[in-house]
Design goal:
Layout: H1 2-6, H2 12-24, H3 28-39, H4 53-65, H5 69-79, H6 85-99, H7 103-110
Helix pairs in contact: 2-3, 2-4, 3-4, 4-5, 4-6
Length: 143
């Protein structure tokens, strides 16, 4: 965790890894803060288009785990057209969570109300893309 905190503090890959670690530790609000700093457009509330989808997926997941379902719904709506397997998994988990809500809470969720229904993540929490090989090492030699 300290490596992700210090060595790569400005590198999106390390910040994403830090957020995944925070989510796996149950520190969802902290993970949201870390991801928000680089996933959202500066001064805006929309997702940056130049980032890999895995970072956006982790942001949506962190929001869901933190109980911020309205914000997660907005992230998920932007990911609906993305065929990336991580985005598809998050969409499926969100749909499953939403299907367990009563019709009343489902309607309330659709208009931005955040129902007090805990979201649980199936499988491992967070997505970590593979890191590039160290300098001087070719991808074929990396194990």
């Amino acid at each position: 965790m300290s490596l992700a905190s210090s060595a790569g503090s400005s590198d999106a890959r390390f910040r994403n890894a830090k957020a995944v670690c925070l989510m796996r530790l149950g520190r969802y609000s902290d993970a949201v803060q870390v991801l928000r700093q680089f996933v959202l457009e500066s001064g805006g509330t929309w997702l940056r288009r130049d980032l890999p989808v895995v970072y956006k997926v982790n942001f949506g997941l962190a929001l869901m785990l933190d109980g911020r379902t309205a914000g997660a719904r907005d992230v998920i709506s932007e990911l609906r057209v993305d065929p990336d397997p991580a985005a598809v998994r998050l969409l499926q988990q969100y749909a499953e969570w939403k299907s367990k809500l009563s019709w009343w809470k489902r309607w309330l969720a659709s208009v931005g109300y955040e129902p007090a229904v805990v979201f649980t993540c199936a499988g491992e929490i967070g997505e970590l893309p593979p890191l590039p090989p160290p300098p001087g090492e070719s991808p074929r030699n990396a194990a």
